[in-house]
Model the fold of this input.
Amino acid sequence: MSLKGNRSQVSRTVSAGIVSISSGELHTLTTCNCEIAVLPVELLFELQSPYFQKNDNTITVHNHEGGYSVFCDGKVEAGRETYTIRNYIERSNKLKGHVDYKDYRETLLTKPIVLFTKARKTNQESPRDKAFAVIVNTRHPNIRAEIEKGMNNAITSVWGESYSLQFDFQRVIKQFFSTVNYDTDGEGLTISFEFKVDALFDISYLFGFSKRKAEVNGKVLNLFSANEEKRKKVKMFLDKISEPYIRRSSVPDRRMSLFSMGSIDEEVFNSVPPNMGPRMSLLESSHPPIAEELTS
Done:
């Protein structure tokens, strides 16, 4: 398992749906009902610049105080530029023990996951690939339950000690893009880990019987923005989803691993600190859904 860049079939039966930033699905910033969100890569970098620091052709991910866990292959295109990503997590990792496993699990569940993929317009004569960021809100109860179920089922269903598990987000994102006249091959939309113990002879693992796949589904929030007012709403939403967790209980000291990014015993989903009133609603505008204002 490795953090990179300068240091650096379980499924919920739901159909993919488009939710816009103007939709009643979101209610307020403190109770937003976002499971998965999609937006152009350059828009994410622009609106979340504290977490994605740009320096020439390099993007450094900052996530010690809030932010995102970025799973990628080390490069991403934004506009006409290709950027090298620093402080990212490889999409495929090897876990060498239970400490690594626990830290990897917490990495998935304590920050939203960012994946990068490409899509192209289907109604253009000469479509060009456009890079998109897929934000998976693993702190949402539904998504969290799918991640935990996939990991728990993998452990209980294998015969040997070693196994591998892949989380697959391709189907739900392909369905989303098809509804907004885009096409994608789904590259970059899987993450996986291999848990390997020092066993002399693990037959199930050697013959591939311990490979598991968890397909993750959810409602997809369309964050494509075509005007300044919508961009402000998108920024408000991203600022909220990237906030650090509020932790209620202390965590006992334990040995750190490469994936240690902060541990939790119990976290608060979309909670508000004491003495703070409700935040401004995202729904004050009656504009049509962003899905109707797509830009190429």
